[in-house]
Amino acid sequence: MLAGHTRIKLLRELSSHTGEGVSALGRRVGIGHAAASQELRRIQSRGLLQSERQGTLQVYRLAADPQVSSAAPLLKAIRSALDQFPPERDREMCVIAAGLAHERRIRIFRFLLGGPCPLRDLPFAVRIPAHPFQVHLRTLQAGGFVARVDDQVSATVPNHPLAKALAKLIQRGAVR
How far apart are CA 111 and CA 134, in angstroms? Predict the structure, then answer.
């Protein structure tokens, strides 16, 4: 969900402009009301936003849903990243999020947390066919979550608040 650049831009706007309606947020990030509403609902479905109706406006704010166990640590990491890094680095968050946005990539990363593995053995060990495995491995590498040295593949965690939070959630088993 965080792999979408528009969603990251909306989160950045919400972190600095609380209490604005959907249309105003959409204008700030360059999308229409309907698209902004859809993206905000998508973020809210992951427990990162709360909304309320104020007159005719639907207003969103950053707030973790206590029913979603991963929401509070993710929101804390997102806020930290938005505070630390300028908007020009928002795409970096998308690439990091994409790294662990698929069940198969999570499976590979979780397996590698147990230690390095020979590249030739890894697809069999995680039960992913060779071609899709290569695609997922490239995405994990782009996100900074795996490193290849010679014929060994190992898990790594990028020095970024979002990457650290995602890795910790996976280690705890909070993300499937």
Answer: 16
Distance of CA 25 to the CA centre of its chain: 20
**How many domains does the chain divide into?**
2
Residues of the domain holding 14: 5-62
Q: Which helix (H) or strand (E) holds 152?
A: strand 152-155
Residue 16 belongs to a domain with what CATH number?
1.10.10.10
Q: How far is CA 71 from CA 16, 43, 61, 166, 167, in A?
A: 19, 10, 14, 11, 14
pLDDT tens-digit profile of 46-93?
999 999 998 888 899 999 999 999 999 999 999 999 999 999 999 999
pTM of the model: 0.92
